[in-house]
């Protein structure tokens, strides 16, 4: 587990992952921490739609 994920989970924030492909070939994964305390409704909507 990397530092971003570990720290986010300690703070109680969800982390979402976006796998990126160009022309059908995978090129990487983007990890985003969602700040639940600052905007809980937006975070839950974003997390549930990811």
TrEMBL record:
This protein's UniProt keywords: Cell projection, Cilium, Flagellum, Isomerase
GO MF assignments: isomerase activity
InterPro entries tied to this protein: Cyclophilin-like_dom_sf (IPR029000)
Name this polypeptide is given: Flagellar peptidylprolyl cistrans isomerase putativ
Organism, as annotated: Albugo laibachii Nc14
Organism ancestry: Eukaryota, Sar, Stramenopiles, Oomycota, Peronosporomycetes
Gene (UniProt): AlNc14C504G11963
């Amino acid at each position: 587990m990397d530092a971003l994920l570990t720290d986010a989970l300690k703070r109680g924030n969800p982390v979402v992952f976006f796998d990126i492909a160009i022309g059908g070939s995978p090129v990487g994964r983007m990890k985003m921490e969602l700040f639940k305390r600052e905007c809980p409704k937006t975070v839950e909507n974003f997390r549930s739609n990811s």
